[in-house]
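Structure representation:
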Amino acid sequence: EKLTHKRNNKINDFMHKTTKMIIDYALENNIATIVIGKNDGWKQEIEIGKRNNQNFVQIPFNKLIEQVEYKSEEEGITVKSQEESHTSKVDHFANETIEHHDKYLGKRIKRGLFKSSTGKIINADINGSIGILKKAVPNAFADGIEALGLTPLKVVPL
């Protein structure tokens, strides 16, 4: 019981610090809308190894999303949840449509990297994030995506 309480306190602390960083970043950069990729049932029947399965399914992502929504509302920021099917397989640099294709233009070349048919190599999570944003806000990249930061930053809340 004491270990569970300690674990829950650590998770709650992490959630509050993380969501505060997200909201502060949005405010500092005049971001009016936050888009969050979400799939119902995405933790069901995953096969990433016994230990990873145990760790992954215990992460309270819904709680994180709820806190982002709550804190965003207080600051006047809109939050959109977006279903994310096909977003990470599609080649956004080639303007491939976000839908099922028998053969996709780009491909994941190794863990964490996606190679566009245009020759560009980007982080696979960034590629998926571009797709999630394009599904939520179809004209988000009307002026192109070349100026995007193509490498994610690891942020550790203190």
